[in-house]
Amino acid sequence: NYTLHRNGTSSSRLDLSYNMPLAYFFTIGMAFFITCMILVYSMSKSFGQSFMIDKSHGILAIKAFTSWDFKVIKECSVKLMSENICTQLKELLAEVNQNNVSSTALQKCGRLMVHGLAWTICTAATAGCAMSIYLFSDYMHNQSRAGAGAQGRLQKEASLLALPVLVSLINLLLPGLFNLASWFENYHSPSVRTYVSISRNLLSKVSVLCVLCYHWLGRIATDTTDHIKCWESFVGQELYRFLIIDFIFTLLDTLCGELLWRFFSDKVLKKRRRPGFDIAKNVLDLIYGQTLAWLGVLFTPLLPAMQILKLLLLFYIKMSSVMMNCQAPRRPYRVTQMTTIFISLLCFPSFIGAAVCVTYTMWSTKPSVSCGPFRGLNKMIQAGKIWMKQLEDENPNLSVLARAYAYLVENPLFLFIGAGIFLIVIYFHSEVVDGERKIINILQEQIENEGEDKKFLITELQSIHEQKRVSRKRVARQNSGCYSGKLRHDKPLE
């Protein structure tokens, strides 16, 4: 709990001091730094695996003749490997066939109009939902300020759950509208359909989180009334409620949307038609929950532990639901390449957005006066400045560290420079990967050209061999004719 942390320095019997505000500040900073390094490493590794793979159609022959691992001897492993290779071949063939699809100019114009209408509807629905969350949160905040002492305990708890329920309901229903629009658009490529679904779901999630961050940091944190004693604890409890309600709605979606539909299809419709697993929606729901956990690290340090428990439960529940209730897509496509997209979305805007919000809270928002480790300070960042001043007073030789802290940590320019260097490293790494991919394409073209040269040489050798064989036959016929004429000429008269 954020409220229980002290705002002073505690000493032990061994004359060792423990500065709680400073420890809190640097623990949060190190947690975000380590998470950032892990995400960057995972993203760079995924980029290398995604874009350095071969792109030519010769991969079909490679998959068909060189994919089998002869060291596998167990029956279950053999079956799994054969199914995996079969799925990969279907995906590759589907990509080759999609490139051969052609349409007329009128069909392209009609499809563009349908896509434009679908995007307009989805964008308007997202904007309407974000505006409804903004207005409802403002209404609930004003109601809470007006009736702070008149509400009963049960009524107050119910009012606190209203906003998380509304947001989770929107996150549950809005992807259904996106899927309906995608069904009307009738994309030929499942990959394109998934990318469009990712874009629309990402737009809705980012809009909702932006409105919520404004509600927490723009309304709750700056409220000057006394109905919220500790706004940090209130925001932490709010994030905890959002995480729990989101988990409950995910379970309801799994049970009602997948399990009940399977029973209805099997028992009532008497058909084996089952729902498909919406990859974009489910993965972005996970990213949404992880973003809430990162936002709540500053206010509820144990919130990531709740998120880990939630992810473990969701993994086994979703895995069982997919195996029992869902069916494979009719058009195969390579979902493995989308791992890079999802890791990139987890890094930006999820992690970067959460880090910006936490940094803004530490640098610009005034802490509560009556609770938390930063009480009595104008900004949370001042905890480090006070500690540096104490070190400088106790030991003047450490004044260099105080100046370094003032120029490096407190100066926002250093953060921008660090972020710029970070982005430059990612850019150069992507350029290196792009260069390696171009080299691979050039080598593949050289191999194909060498193959064409060998075909040409073999054809020329065959033609030369054929000409020599024909000339030998002609010479043999001429020699045979000369020999028979000579015999007729030399035959004695009877």
Automatic annotation (TrEMBL):
Keyword hit for Transmembrane = yes
Where can this protein be found? Membrane
- TM helices/strands, residue ranges: 21-42, 116-137, 158-178, 198-218, 239-264, 292-317, 338-363, 404-428
Q: Which coarse location class describes where this protein primarily resides?
A: membrane
**InterPro entries recorded for this chain?**
TMC, TMC_dom
Instruction: Name any one GO molecular function.
Output: mechanosensitive monoatomic ion channel activity
User: Is Transmembrane tagged as a keyword?
Assistant: yes
Q: Which GO terms describe its cellular component?
A: plasma membrane
Ranges of residues in domain TMC: 230-334
Q: Which family, according to UniProt? A: Belongs to the TMC family.
User: PANTHER family under this entry?
Assistant: TRANSMEMBRANE CHANNEL-LIKE PROTEIN 6 (PTHR23302:SF4), TRANSMEMBRANE CHANNEL-RELATED (PTHR23302)
Q: What is this protein called?
A: Transmembrane channel-like protein
Q: Which organism is it from?
A: Nothobranchius korthausae
Quote the gene name from the UniProt entry.
TMC6
